[in-house]
Amino acid sequence: MTVRVVLGVSGGIAAYKVCELLRRFTESGHDVTVVPTASALEFVGAPTWSALSGKPVATEVWTRVHEVPHVRIGQSADVVVVAPATADLLAKAAHGLADDLLTNTLLTARCPVVFAPAMHTEMWEHPATQANVATLRRRGAVVLEPADGRLTGADTGKGRLPDPAEIFELVLGVLDRGADASQDLAGRKVVVSAGGTREYLDPVRFLGNRSSGLQGYALARAAASRGAHVTLVSANVTLPDPAGVSVVRVETTQQLRDAVVAATATADAVVMAAAPADFRPTAVSDAKIKKADDGSAPAIELEQNPDILAEISHDRAREDAVIVGFAAETGDATGSVLELGRAKLARKACDLLVVNDVSGGAVFGSADNEAVVLAADGAAVEVPRGSKTALAHVIWDEVLRRFAD
Q1: Which pLDDT score is estimated for 337?
Q2: CATH 3.40.50.10300 residue ranges in the chain?
Q3: Dihedrals φ, ψ of 230, to 5°?
Q4: Which CATH class is domain 189-404?
Q5: Would you say the pTM of this structure is higher than 0.90?
Q6: What is a GO molecular function of this protein (predicted)?
Q7: Mean pLDDT for each 10-residue chunk of the chain (405 residues)?
C-alpha cells in the first residue's frame, strides 16, 4: 500500500538535512509531496526537492490553482511531516494562520501531523513558542523535542533538528498505529533505560553483556510519538538518539543507577529495559592486566551491583508511578521461563515485568522480539513475534491501563 506523505519544509538552515529524510521516504516506496515555504527555498532550491521527490514543488496557493492545491494536498495525505519546523511555522500552525500553501495544507489535513522543530535554544525556550507547542500537542499533533547539540555558528544547546533517520522511524511508528496514533501520553514524564552496562577490570577490559539497546530505544521512540516527555538513560549504545528524546549516557551499573534514580523523582513511569551487570570486580587495576609467563589466569573477585529495579520499586519516589522491568530468562532446573519471571516480578515488586525467552541468544541484536508482559495483579499479555516497536506500544498500552487505575 502506497502511503501519501506531505513533507513540509520551513525556512531554517536545517532544511538541508531534510533531503535525507525525503530520500528515506521515497526509497521506502512512499508517495511524497514536498511543500516548502518561500523562505525554505532560500536554503534548498526547488530543483532539489523536485528531483528527490519526482514531483514539482510550489509555495503559493496560486500555482495550478484549478487543482485547488491548498485543499487537496492536505485532504489526500496519510501523514504530514514538517521538518524543520521553525518558531514562525509553529506559531502560524497554532494560531490557524494560512498565508501560503504549507499553512493551508496544515489546516485541511485530517491525518496525523508531525512537527520536528529546529531553532536556537532561546527561541525554543521562549514562552510564546512553548505555548504554541502546548496548543498543537493538545490538538493531537506530534511535536518532537529538538535535540541538543551544535546550532548555527558556534552556539550549542537544545534546538537542533533530530536525526533524519530517527524522524523517519518515528513517522513509520505513527503510520503503523493508524487510527490509534493518539497523543495518549501527552504531558506524561517517562524514563526508559537501555543497553548493557560495563564493569571494568582494567583500562581496556570489562565485564558486559549482549544487550544492543534496540528495545529500549524503540520504547523511547514510541513514547515520544505518543506525546511523552522522555528521558532515555543509555548504557553503551551506539544507536542514533531517538527523535524528541533527552539522552543521558552512562557506562557502569552504578552510573546507571544514579541516573535512573535522579530521573525518576518526577516520572509518571519508568521502564527498565537496560541489562545491568549483576556483578562487578571488587578491585579495578590501574594498568592493563598482563598475561603470566606460566600460563596462569588471574583470580577475579566479584561483588554484587545495586539492584536498580528493586530499589526504585520498593522505595518509590512517587507512589502512583508505574514501574516496568525486563527479565531475560532461559529456564533451568528451578523453573520455566514464565515461572522464573513470576518469581522475579514478586521479588522486585514492580508493576509490570516483560519476560523474554533468550535461549540460544534469541532477541539480542534482533529487530524483532516476542514476550509475555506479566502484571502484579496476575494478568498476562502474550505478545507474538514482531517488531520491537510493536512490543513497545503494547508495553505503553499496559502502562496507560495502570494510569487509569
Answers
A1: 86
A2: 189-404
A3: -115, 130
A4: alpha beta
A5: no
A6: FMN binding
A7: 91 96 96 96 96 90 62 91 98 96 95 95 97 94 91 85 94 81 88 97 92 94 93 96 94 97 95 95 93 88 95 92 91 82 94 86 70 94 91 96 79
CA pair distance 280, 297, nearest whole angstrom: 18
Among 104, 209, 305, 356, the active-site one is 209
Q: Is 307 annotated as a binding residue?
A: yes
Instruction: Please indicate if the annotation marks 323 as binding a ligand.
Output: no
Instruction: State yes or no: 326 annotated in a binding site.
Output: yes
Say if residues 262 and 282 touch (Cβ distance below 8 Å).
no
Secondary structure (3-state) at 171: helix
Q: Which amino acid is at 8?
A: G
Residues of the chain with CATH 3.40.50.1950: 4-180
Mark whether 369 is an active-site residue. no
Q: Is 17 annotated as a binding residue?
A: no
Q: What is the dihedral of CA 226, 230, 233, 239, to 10 degrees?
A: 50
Backbone angles phi, psi at 296, to 5 degrees: -80, 155
